[in-house]
Design goal:
CATH topology: 60s Ribosomal Protein L30, Chain: A
Strand order of the largest sheet: 1-2-3-8-6-7
CATH architecture: 2-Layer Sandwich
GO molecular function, one term: deaminase activity
Pfam family, one: Ribonuc_L-PSP
Family: Belongs to the RutC family.
Oligomer: single chain
Protein name: YjgF-like protein
Radius of gyration: 17 Å
InterPro entries: RidA (IPR006056), RidA_CS (IPR019897), RutC-like_sf (IPR035959), YjgF/YER057c/UK114 (IPR006175)
Strand content: 25-35%
Length: 151
């Protein structure tokens, strides 16, 4: 058996108590450069780690709330989400998920894939992951400035 692998110094692990803790050997998100890779968020309530009560609408709202908490903990914001992947237990829920998703992101429309899967962790109805950009800073002369072309 090989030696355990440690996280490379170019990667930063993101963790927040505002979203459910990982339920396996993975991070809530990983930062690399100005990109943030968020693991799939399922509709668990962070304090109890229990699936939110209700159907697909309530579960989608909670999954997106958890995703937002991880995105913000990683130093980004919803308007910088570039790509999402939505995993659905049933494609019959696609229209309902779209309604919640559309209200959540507003006029921002990240690239997205939506797929039906056989089963999700804890038998939830939806899981959502994303890739986002972070605030990117550049050195200008002797001052640190946010680069508006990258925000």
């Amino acid at each position: 058996m090989s030696a355990p692998t440690s996280t490379h110094e170019s990667l930063s692990v993101v963790s927040t108590s505002q979203a459910p803790a990982a339920i396996g050997p993975y991070a809530q998100a990983i930062k690399v450069g100005d990109l943030l890779f968020c693991s799939g968020c399922i509709p668990l309530e962070p304090p109890t780690m229990q699936v939110v009560e209700g159907g697909i609408v309530a579960q989608t709202e909670q999954a997106l709330k958890n995703l937002k908490a991880v995105v913000e903990a990683g130093g980004s914001e919803l308007g910088k989400v570039a790509k999402t992947t939505v995993f659905l237990k049933s494609m019959d829920d696609f229209v309902a998920v779209n309604g919640v998703y559309s209200n959540f992101f507003g006029s921002h429309t990240p690239a997205r894939s939506a797929v039906e899967v056989a089963r999700l962790p804890k038998d939830v109805l939806v899981e959502i992951e994303c890739i986002a950009r972070q605030v990117y800073y550049v050195w200008h002369l002797t001052k640190l400035h946010a680069d508006p072309t990258t925000m």
